[in-house]
Amino acid sequence: MPLPTPNSAWAAGLDDFRELARTFCQKEIAPNIERYNAQKHVDRELWHKAGEVGLLALSIPEEYGGGGGTFAHEAVLFEEQARAGDSAWGVSVHNGIVAQYLLEYASEEKKKEWLPKFASGEMVGAIGMTEPGTGSDLQGIKTRAVRDGSHYVINGAKTFITNGGFADLVVLAVKTDPDAGAHGVSLIAVPADTPGFRRGRVLDKIGLKGQDTAELFFDDVRVPVANLLGEQEGQGFIQMMQQLPQERLLIAITAVAGMETAIEATIAYTKERTAFGRPIFSFQNTKFTLAEAATEATVARAFLDQCIERHLRGELDVRGAAMAKLWTTERVNKVVDDCLQLFGGYGYMTEYPIARAWTDLRITRIFGGTSEIMKEIISRTL
Ligand SMILES: Cc1cc2nc3c(=O)[nH]c(=O)nc-3n(C[C@H](O)[C@H](O)[C@H](O)COP(=O)(O)OP(=O)(O)OC[C@H]3O[C@@H](n4cnc5c(N)ncnc54)[C@H](O)[C@@H]3O)c2cc1C
């Protein structure tokens, strides 16, 4: 049974694009999920295939080889990816985060060098903020970039980096002035083929098993000063604060699509499965659980759509994005847990998408800023 198309106003006119994204996710990704999970990464070829059909750098202007679309195109792709049950392909980081940093802050020359490769799949992007010693407190990063003539020399380590196993270009948060607090943070784009750049192991996780989340190490890595994002040092913290609302909205999209997909699957399963001579769906507990879940998803969808529309108008503020992330990620964890319960023992089997959703979506309350940090951000505005 084909999945319904969300009837969101912001997605009007994107039906053909949604069909393209859906077909790609269903044909190229869904059949390979178990293999991706086993090998802990997607095939490098997937990026090239996505580039060929035009699913990369969707909201990057055509002059840089991108799709010339808007955030709405990105949102449709991430919804369809979630609906296909995929959590392995790190396209939201590549398209929705790293390409945006390059577009906003890289020099014209570097944009022309890197963005067309982001669009074709020749280059995969990652963003390196988190370090072994600090995640929530980004001012506390220790990775250091020291100016040496026309280069920066970078030393340090990052961890939990999505796409880290295969990334060709990492937007790296570094300290250019360790005594200047937030004003001492800069972002530098580091090509992975630079000597001294080393990948650690792909990390073992409870979910997102097909994603190459990795440690990265930097030992005297020399990159040209031209790779600094922004016109001067010390802009990194402001740049991250400007981009984090979009990152949080991306996570909210995954959360809401995850809720909707889980509920659809649970309705179908409970109508098929019988106990005590009748479909499980017919028990009042099942109906009430699903009624609550459907209500949660409907409310979450309304708020998400409002936030996407605000973002498309350039009006989504830090607080709105934090609320969207906080609310939707907390709710999806509850909804998916309730849905899993209705699958009984089958819900615990990793071959069932509901089991994978339960482990995959747990991270949404942690990455992109934890729920506690979202509450901090929101409470500051009260
Ligand atoms: C699968 C995965 C993918 C990731 N991808 C990336 C990536 O691509 N790039 C990247 O840079 N990072 C990435 N991360 C890192 C992620 O963003 C961090 O794990 C997250 O920001 C939390 O940081 P931390 O792990 O250091 O936790 P900590 O900061 O050590 O937090 C531990 C606990 O303390 C709480 N806490 C901290 N500060 C406060 C406070 N002020 N008030 C109340 N409670 C507080 C937190 O909410 C949390 O509950 C990823 C992580 C995972 C697991």
Structure explained in plain terms:
The chain has eleven helices and nine strands. It is α+β, with helices and mostly antiparallel strands and 382 residues long. The model has no long low-confidence stretch (mean pLDDT 96). The structure holds flavin-adenine dinucleotide (FAD). The site of flavin-adenine dinucleotide has 22 residues, from strand 1, strand 3 and helix 11.
Brief summary:
The protein is an alpha+beta fold and 382 residues long. It is built from eleven helices and nine strands.
Q: Into which percentage range does the β-strand content fall?
A: 5-15%
State the separation between the terminal residues, measured CA to CA: 46 Å
Give me the secondary-structure category: alpha+beta
Q: Residue share in helices? A: 40-55%
Mean pLDDT: 96
Main sheet strand line-up: 2-3-7-6
Q: Enumerate the distinct ligands.
A: flavin-adenine dinucleotide
Number of helices: 11
Which helices and strands appear, and what pairs or packs with what?
Elements: H1 15-29, H2 33-39, H3 44-53, H4 71-83, H5 91-105, H6 108-120, E1 125-128, E2 144-148, E3 151-161, E4 169-175, E5 185-191, E6 197-202, E7 214-224, H7 236-272, E8 274-275, E9 278-279, H8 284-312, H9 318-342, H10 353-360, H11 371-380
Helix pairs in contact: 1-4, 4-7, 5-6, 5-7, 7-8, 7-9, 8-9, 9-10, 9-11
